[in-house]
Write a structure and sequence with these properties.
Low-confidence stretches: 31-54
Distance between the termini: 108 Å
Number of domains: 3
Strand content: 25-35%
Shape: elongated
Strand order of the largest sheet: 2-1-4-3
Structural class: alpha+beta
């Protein structure tokens, strides 16, 4: 009986201690956030701020917003940026709506007047030429940013199948060159 009384007292003390420590923790947590219960003026400011934040409409694209299309080229590691004024069709769109309209792009920065969209491209940038196989022949390509694809700029009469194995493998994978002079020099060496 004496043991049961000791256990009951111990349990009551633990419950009281937990209740007090929980209250103090909550009180101090509110105090550190600047919301002490007895600070009526501070609570009024916080409530006013909360209500204006909930009444604000989401950011949308403004009429003269600038859109920066940033392309990251994986083969040469170059980056290009093209800036345009937002087309009328996207004025008033939120960030989420804009992302749906430009599903191939990632929205990396969004404000009503300035938007940045990024895209990674598995190719060389427009400053480079690519020499690769096209239907069994060596061809020269250049990346076209307007239609986001490689455009063939010259088809040669050099057959890929007659090239040495290591050269053929490079041509099949595509070789990036920085100038037309480099392209011409390569074509001369392949043709000889």
């Amino acid at each position: 009986m004496f043991l049961n009384k000791k256990v009951s007292i111990l349990v009551a003390i633990v419950i009281v201690a937990l209740t007090v420590s929980g209250y103090l923790y909550g009180y101090n947590r509110g105090f550190s956030a600047g919301r002490r219960p007895d600070n009526i003026e501070n609570n009024a400011i916080l409530n006013a701020t909360d209500s204006t934040a909930s009444n604000q409409s989401p950011k949308t694209v403004s009429l003269n917003a600038k859109i920066h299309f940033k392309r990251l080229y994986n083969y040469c590691l170059h980056t290009t940026t093209q800036t345009v004024v937002a087309p009328k069709e996207i004025v008033g769109l939120t960030k989420e709506e804009l992302a749906k309209n430009y599903s191939d792009w990632i929205v990396t920065d969004f404000s009503k007047n300035d938007i940045t969209l990024e895209k990674e491209i598995d190719s060389y940038c427009p400053l480079h030429y690519m020499v690769r196989d096209e239907e069994g022949y060596v061809a020269i390509y250049k990346y076209n940013e307007e239609n986001d694809q490689l455009d063939i700029i010259k088809q040669t009469n050099i057959k890929t199948e007659f090239l040495p194995d290591d050269t053929k493998m490079h041509i099949l994978n595509g070789i990036g060159l920085e100038s037309l002079e480099e392209v011409e020099a390569m074509l001369e060496s392949l043709d000889s």
